[in-house]
Amino acid sequence: MCGIVGYVGYREAYPILINGLKRLEYRGYDSAGIALLNGNFEIYKKKGNVRDLEESIQRPGSATIGIGHTRWATHGPPNDQNAHPHLSNAGLFAIIHNGIIENYAELKKRLFTRGYTFQSDTDTEVLVNLIEEIYQVGSLSPEEAVRLAMMKAQGTLGILLLTKEYPQQIIAARRSSPLVIGIGEGEYFIASDVMPIIEHTRNVVYLNDEDIAIIQPNELSIKTSKNAIQIPFIQQLSLELDAIEKGGYEHFMLKEIFEQPKSIQDTMRGRINAQEGYIKLGGLTDVLERITQARRIIILGCGTSWHAGLVGEYLIEELARLPVEVEYASEFRYRNPVLFEDDVILAISQSGETADTLAAVQLARQSNLLVLGICNVVGSSLPRLTNAGVYTHAGPEIGVASTKAFTSQVTALVLIALLLAEKRNTLPCEKIKAHIQSLIRLPELVEQTLQQTNSNTQELAELYKNATNFLYLGRGYNFPVALEGALKLKEISYIHAEGYPAAEMKHGPIALIDENMPVVVIATRDKSYEKIISNIQEVKARKGKVIAVVSNGDSKIRNLADHILEIPLTEDILTPILAVIPLQLLAYYIAVLRGCNVDQPRNLAKSVTVE
Ligand code: G6P
Predict the structure, then answer these.
(1) Got the DSSP string for 512-574?
(2) Ligand 1 atom at minimal distance to the Cα of residue 605
(3) How would you classify residue 379: left for phi > 0, otherwise alpha for psi between -120 and 50, otherwise beta?
C-alpha cells in the first residue's frame, strides 16, 4: 500500500526516483508524485499511474535529493491535490507518507485555529503542518519536530521528509509502515521495500518501529522515538534484478504463474531428506516440541494467504491430528478470542506487511502465545514479530493478484503437516516417505499442468469473457481452491464470482444457476469424486455451463461437463497446488481479453498496510 522512495547523494535524483516509483507501483497506483529540493522545492504530482506523472514532467529540475510516492488512496479521492508529496503552509517541509493518521481530524481542527489552511483532503497534509508548527514554535531541529509530531499523531506512518532549511537531509520515520534504507557509496536510497534499491546496492538497513533516521550524503544516524541512538544493522540482499523484471512476459502475473515449478522447488529446497524420509524446517527446530504439544493451532491470514490457511487446516488435521482453526486476521484481532496458553498461532502472509495480520500477531504475543509465521519477503515485519517460522522463498511477487505465493504457502504447509505428523507419530514412516516422493515429483507435475491447461484456458476465456457471474465449487482440499479461483477472477477481471463448498450449493447458490451461469467445478479423482459428480449433475439439470477441472484420463466427467481441464493425478494433499493453476490461467486470460490492467487491478494494492 503506497510506495515510498527517496534519494540523497551526489547523482541526479529525478531518474532514480521515477524508476524507483515504477518498481514500487504495485503497492498503489492511483496517483504519484515527486519532490526535488535544490534551494527551493519542485513538486510534481499527478492523478493516474507513474507513466502519467512522467509524461506530465517536461523538464525535471536538477537536484541531488528528492522523494517520490505512489498512492493508494485512504483519505480523499485520487486526484492531483491529494497526491503526495504535500507541502507545509510556510513551505518549509515536503512530505510523503504511507499509513493512516487516525486522529487527523482532531489535529486538523487545532491547526485550523492557529491559521493553517489545507489544499487536500489527506491526513498527510495535516501531519506535515503539525511538524511545521512544532518546528517553528519550538525552534527545533526537523528530527526533533518529527519526534514530537509522532507523539501527537496516532496511527501508522512511514514518512520521508525534506526540509528547506536542511537541504541535504532526509528524515525517515517508521511506525508500522515499512521502510528500508539502501547504503551506497556516499549516497542513500530509501524505500518502502527493496524493489527500487536492488539495482543500486545490496546493503540495506531495515528501520524498526518508532525509529527516526537522519540521512545525509555520507552520514546515516538512526534514533528511537525516545532519542536513543541505534547502531544500524546492515544486511545483504541476495535478490537478483531479473527476479523483479518481466523477463519477456506480457504481465508479471503470467510470469509468476509460469514460475511456479521453480518457486515450489525453492520452497522445498534443503528441507526434504528423500532417502531417510523426513522433513527438516530449520526455522521451527527450536520450538518444535512446543508445537507438537499444542492444544490447537490457530492460522491467521488475509486474502489468498487465508485461503492457503484453509488448505493448511485440512492438511494438519488429517496428517498430524492436531486441531486447527483458521481465522481472518481482521476478525481475530477485534473479537476478543478465547485463547489458551498452549495454543500456537501460525500467521501467513506473502508480504509480511499486512496490517491486520501484524496486529493479530501482536495481540497473540501479548497473550504470550507461541507465534509462528509463513512469509515470503525476507526482512519484512512479520518474521520480526514472530518467534519462529518458515520462509517460502518463492521470489518477489509483483502482480497484485497472488499466484505463486499461494502454491508456495501450501507447499510450506504440507512440509509443516508432515513434520508434525512424524513428530506426533500420527503417520507411519512408509506413508511419510510416500508423501515425500510425491512432493519431489511436484514441480514436474506443476510444469505439466501449465503445459496441459495453458491453451485450453485461453479458449475458455474467449467463450466466457462476457459472463457476468461465475460460480466455483470444490470439496475437501479443493474447497479452498474454489474460493481462490473465484477471488482471482473477481480481482483482475471484475466479474462477480463466488466460491462454495460444492455440497452447499443446494442451500442457496443453486437458485442462481441458469443457462448463462458458468460453474467451475474442481472434480479431481479423490475421495469426494463420486459426490462431486452428483453436484455436477445438479448443475447440468438446471442448464448451467460446467467447466470441470479433472484428473488426466477422466472419462465420467468428460461426458457430463461442457468443458474439461485435465491436470495430472497426484495425492489428495497436493491436488490444490495443481488444481489452482488452470483457475489462475483462466482468470488471467479473461482479464486480458476484457482489457483489464492485470498487474494493477483497480482499487487493490499488493500489500495492505492499513486496516
Ligand atoms: C492483498 C493482496 C492479496 C493478498 C492479501 C494478503 O489483498 O491483493 O493478493 O492475498 O493482500 O496479503 P499478504 O501479503 O498478507 O499475503
Answers:
(1) G-STT-EEEEE--SSTTHHHHHHHHHHHHHTTPEEEEEEETT--HHHHHSSEEEEE----GGG
(2) 8
(3) left
Q: 599 Cβ partners below 8 Å, 6+ apart?
A: 26, 251, 252, 253, 398, 399, 400
Q: pTM above the 0.85 mark?
A: yes
Q: Which atom of ligand 1 is nearest to the CA of 357?
A: 15
What pLDDT sits at residue 56?
95
Q: Before 85, cis peptide (omega within 30)?
A: yes
**Helix and strand numbers, DSSP H then E, in the chain:** 18, 27
Q: If DSSP codes are grouped into helix, strand and coil, which group holds residue 136?
A: helix
Rounded CA-CA distance 162/143 in Å is 11
pLDDT reported for residue 238: 82
First to last CA, the chain: 11
Could you tell me if the CB of 304 is within 6 A of ligand 1? yes
Classify 411 as helix, strand or coil: helix
Q: Which residues contact 557 (CB under 8 A, 6 or more apart)?
A: 523, 533, 536, 548, 550, 564
Contact 178, 211 (CB under 8 A): no
Under DSSP, the state recorded for 297 is E
Identify which of 402, 488, 603, 609 to mutate to test ligand 1's pocket (most ligand atoms within 8 A of the CB).
402
Q: Say which amino acid occupies 596.
A: C
* Residue 316 DSSP label: I
Expressed in angstroms and rounded, the spacing between residue 376 Cα and the centre of ligand 1 is 11
- The pLDDT tens digits for 90-118 are 999 999 999 999 999 999 999 999 999 99
**Cβ(84)–Cβ(96) under 8 Å?**
yes
